[in-house]
Amino acid sequence: MIATSSELSIMVRRCLLTCKPFRIFVVGIGFFSLCFLMTSLGGQFSAKRPGDSPFTIRAEVLGGQESRGVLRKISDMLEVIMKRMDALSKLGNTSDAHRLDELSSALDRIQPVGLVERIQAIAQNMSDMAVRVEQILQRSMAGNKVRDGAFGQCEIPKDPRYPDCPSKMDWMRARWTSDPCYAYYGVDGSDCSFLIYLSEVEWFCPPLPWRNQTATPTLRPPPKKQAVFQSDIGTLLEQVGTGKESLSFMKRRIRRLAAQWASAARRLDDKLRSHWREQKRILVHVGFLTEESGDVFSPKVLKGGPLGEMVQWADILTALHVLGHNLKISVSLKELHGFLGVPPGRGSCPLTGPLPFDLIYTDYHGLQQMKQHMGLSLRKHKCHIRVIDTFGTEPAYNHEEYATLHGYRTNWGYWNLHGQQYMTMFPHTPDNSFMGFVAEELNETERLSIQRNKVHNMALVYGKEASMWKGKEKFLAILHRYMEIHGTVYYETQRPPEVPTFVKNHGLLPQQELQQLLRKAKLFIGFGFPYEGPAPLEAIANGCIFLQPKFNPPHSSLNHEFFRGKPTSRKVSSQHPYAEQYIGRPHVITIDFNNSEEFDATIREIMRINVKPFLPYEYTCEGMLERVHAYIQNQDFCSPEAPFPPVNSSRTWPGSPPSPFMLLPNSRILTWASNASSFSFWPPLSALRLLASLEGQSCVKACQSAGLICEPALYRFINIKEAFSALDFQCEGVESEMNHLFPAFSAEHAECGLQQDPLLYSCAGSSPRYQRLCPCRDYRKGQVALCRDCL
User: Fold this and answer.
1) How far is the C-alpha of 119 from the C-alpha of 41, rounded, in Å?
2) Which residues contact 388 (CB under 8 A, 6 or more apart)?
């Protein structure tokens, strides 16, 4: 018999932990060839006797004492080899690899015919291997002496600028085998390789003086190129790819709207007067469509599933392409790895080179995937990321430490991004950037045709899934008294029982057929779900009146399951707050559906009025191109912000005491004084309007009440004690702390609080204890995302 299976596994693990990859390969082949040959000769594994070496071999094979003696000789040879390999593992020289390769060839020459002859041949070859390993060991030790004299002993540098170097070295010693990416970067278990990695691949240790610092020169960014509007969508369609129904849906949408995008690009180009625009290298990684995230959307495209996300992503891709940027699209982890340069392994190591993109658009799924596969590079490059986020992420939820300490931690927040790196479908969260989507525009002929051909007693229900119709019988019965009701509920074989028999159900319709139905219907009625989808805007654009339920109390993460766990405290007052707030009557009517009398009266009112097709400018192709262009050319979250106010700048401020603010005529609103210090900033300071909220009022509401928009980018200019004085707040004390409501004034204690962490500048949030200082701004007509001077 030979050594037990547990003893063999100990030997293999020992070799794996101590040998360099090429040594593991050579010795592994020899060892497993030996095991295979001996077991094929009739050996069996047995328990180990007390006192035996891990590699002691006990033979009960044909051949008697002679074979036992030879096997014992093999055992001795294995012991010698392992001792030599232990010593070799501590050396850094790889120049003798070819000599070990010669050793492996000895195994190929084992061709004995008889049992004893085979065993003797094995023993002789193992003896030869031991001799050659001894020779390599001697040469390697001599070479190391030379290197040690030149480089020292690779001791851990003591540099106060790199305080984490010692702890990172300890971590590498214990865990460097936990991810193959370390070996990919040359880590071999020696302290020298750890230091090289930690100083040249990561940045926890100082540069090593004995290393050639020109080996990894700093790469200059590529030269800037001009972006040119492009109308040909052929290359975009090729990049979107195939193989998923979701991708096919997006491509159909891109084709259908191509002419409108091209026309919008010409108009925007004229508006910008062919202004020079920098072409950006952009990666779009649609994380929710990757197989690794589950891709629950693609199978439901043809079964009434949600399409809003795919509508938005299709429009984002088209906008970036038409604006003339260098675009790459990823819908799989394999594509993401290739585009970013992710090293092989489990994601613990940085990227193999500089980030090859200026901007990365993704979603929360993609963000999580990048965290798993980019290692430390995500922290280094996260300022380039833009997260498409339907419902918004408020700063209190985004700040990891603050969210954890104050109960704002959810499954989706805590990424420590700048608030405006999150981009929403509707402009409901000023702390984020409004990305949006587009609805199809009508030409004048189509508008007139729709107005002539409207069926004034036809209603279409917003609800593709049968479950949405449950419990709606009461007000549907009232509606049925006045109008013919149509539905587009998905079904496979039988009519869904949730849909009343008096409803004409068309089943799930392709987009063009749905458009034709919307052009006939006078009323588009919502059931309260889904929230904030694109369909109501498409209906309004086709001349429908949108009737929706009012929520009392408003839905939020505090009282509604759908919003629970989402990184926002927003209170949703209706199914579609944007339509309610920014469009309103007569196109949008919001009522209490539980009040039968009000519902009946509203239907009779709708029968009497006529409306024209209407589409807000910000949801046209031109409006989206204008907005995305402004973001790309002006938003910069990578460059460090200069401190404000600069040293001695207050000496140039007018007034006594000096202040950079002045009152607008006949108003309590302050603006930036034209003769105060000028700063190059976007949005420009000319747009700033400073006011104080009421106690218990958020800055979102305070700015809205003044006909303005809260602008978090301008917080840094009002987070100064002079802002309190300008608003006539008498501060007995001024404190600075991390609080998402600051800057704010506490009347109870006459205390003024300044914001300590810029990541917590937040338009959202209120408290009855505080009056908040709010940086509001004006906005362009039909484009709330941009101020009047923002283009």
Assistant:
1) 10
2) 312, 313, 316, 361, 362, 363, 423, 435
Instruction: Report whether pLDDT(709) > 70.
Output: yes
- Measured CA to CA, the distance from residue 558 to residue 705 in angstroms comes to 25
Beta-sheet pairing, 484-487 with 504-505: parallel
Question: Residue 494's CB: how many other CB atoms inside 10 A?
Answer: 6
Beta bridge partners of 422: 387
Mean pLDDT for all residues in the chain:
84
Q: Which residue has the tokens 């609805």?
A: 439
Radius of gyration of the chain (CA): 35
Confidence at residue 122, expressed as pLDDT on a 0 to 100 scale = 61
pLDDT for 546-591, tens place per residue?
999 999 999 999 899 999 999 999 999 999 999 999 999 999 999 9
Closest CA to 468 of 523, 530, 510: 530
Q: Is the dihedral of CA 341, 346, 347, 349 positive or negative?
A: negative
| d(C-alpha 317, C-alpha 239), whole Å | 10
User: Please, which residues bridge with residue 691 across strands?
Assistant: 774
- Structure tokens given for 604: 């009779």
| Span 175-227, pLDDT tens digits | 999 999 999 999 999 999 999 999 999 989 999 988 876 555 566 778 999 99
Q: Which pLDDT score, from 0 to 100, does residue 492 have? A: 86
19 contact partners, CB below 8 Å, separation of at least 6 = 27, 85, 88, 89
Give DSSP secondary structure letters for 501-545.
TTSEE--S--HHHHHHHHHHEEEEEE-S-S-S-SHHHHHHHTTPE
- For residues 506 and 141, what is the distance between their CA atoms, to the nearest angstrom? 83
User: How many helical (H) and strand (E) elements, i.e. helices and strands, does the chain have?
Assistant: 27, 21
> Maximum CA pair distance of the chain?
114
Nearest-angstrom CA–CA distance, 753 and 760: 13
* E strand or H helix that includes residue 470: none
Instruction: Using the structure block, give the residue that is written with the tokens 């232990």.
Output: 86
424 in Cβ contact with 389 (< 8 Å) = yes
Strand partners of residue 403: none
Contact, 352 vs 376, CB < 8 A? Answer: no
What one-letter code names the amino acid at 565?
Answer: G
Q: Are 544 and 537 in contact (CB under 8 A)?
A: no
Closest listed residue to residue 395, CA positions, set 370, 420, 371, 378: 420
Which residue in the block uniquely carries the two structure tokens 């207050």?
650
Residue 554 corresponds to which tokens in the numbers above? Answer: 């408003």
β strands within 197-297, DSSP E: 281-285
d(CA 585, CA 336): 46
Pairing of strands 771-777, 744-746: antiparallel
The pLDDT of residue 48: 37
How many whole angstroms separate alpha carbon 178 and alpha carbon 181?
A: 9
Give the residue among 55, 140, 35, 36 at the shortest CA–CA distance from 97. 140
pLDDT in the model for residue 4: 44
Say which amino acid occupies 296: V
Cβ-proximal residues to 228 (8 Å cutoff; 6+ apart), any chain: 279, 324
Nearest C-alpha neighbor of 574 from the set 557, 549, 597? 549
Helix (H/G/I), strand (E/B), else coil: 327: strand
Do 390 and 313 contact (CB within 8 A), yes or no?
no
Structure tokens at 699: 């800055």
Strand partners of residue 505: 487
Cβ within 8 Å of residue 92, ≥6 positions away: 144, 147, 188, 190, 192, 193
Q: Is 87 exposed, middle or buried (0-12, 13-18, 19+ CB in 10 A)?
A: middle
Amino acid letter, 32: F
